[in-house]
Design a protein that fits this description.
- The protein is mainly alpha-helical and about 200 residues long.
- The chain contains nine helices and two strands.
- Helices cover about 50% and strands about 10% of the residues.
- A hairpin with a 2-residue loop joins strand 1 and strand 2.
- Helix 3 crosses helix 9.
- The structure holds fe (ii) ion (FE2) (2 copies).
């Protein structure tokens, strides 16, 4: 594991240790350590499509979410969304992506010569969806509050296929404004903090 990946893993684990006291969290972390979570990319072709990208993206979402919560509610923001909830939602919103990325090779012409280059592709062994899959996995280890589940379930906002199928985001985000902030934090991390390699 290279240094940056190792550093991000340590930051992630200390945030969990300091901020989350929920029953089952240790088992969740033991599970996570057995998956590719800390070395997986965050996407195949889009943001943070590099080794360690998924962990880094989750940390970026945490930073963005805390900033947005402060902006919305002021310094007393934890009265509206606890630090534990913010940490759970941000760090685990994309847990659905564990063990879904595989490295394949493709032929690319470089300086007139065909060469084989590696690239990430996906093989989802549990095609349960996206936000709903994260909630499903987490529920096997820790009990989420209703609000945390809503934030994680709907973090993709307008990019969620279920929304394209007619589910109303208005309904969801008016009832759960912190789910809207989670979606914005995810977008800000993706488009402002992360790049495509
Ligand atoms: Fe996501
Ligand atoms: Fe995300």
């Amino acid at each position: 594991m290279d240094n940056v990946i190792e550093d991000n893993k340590n930051i992630f684990l200390s945030l969990v240790k300091d901020n989350i006291k929920r029953e089952g969290i240790n088992t969740l972390i033991e599970y996570l350590q057995k998956t590719d979570f800390f070395v997986a990319p965050a996407s195949t072709r889009y943001h943070s499509n590099c080794a360690g990208g998924l962990c880094k993206h989750s940390l970026n979402v945490f930073e963005r979410l805390v900033k947005l919560l402060k902006m919305q509610y002021g310094e007393q923001w934890q009265q509206y969304f606890s630090l534990e909830s913010a940490t759970i939602v941000a760090l685990f919103h994309d847990i659905c992506k564990v063990d879904t990325y595989v490295v394949d090779t493709k032929n690319v012409k470089q300086n007139g010569v065909w060469v084989q280059v590696p690239y990430y592709t996906t093989q989802d062994k549990l095609p349960y969806g996206h936000g709903e899959k994260s909630v499903y996995i987490l529920n096997g280890f820790i009990r989420l509050t209703r609000e945390e589940a809503m934030c994680i379930n709907w973090h993709m906002g307008e990019y969620d296929m279920r929304v394209k199928g007619g589910i109303s985001l208005n309904d969801i985000y008016y009832k759960y404004p912190n789910a809207f902030l989670t979606h914005i934090a995810d977008n800000m991390a993706t488009f402002l903090d992360e790049t495509i390699s």
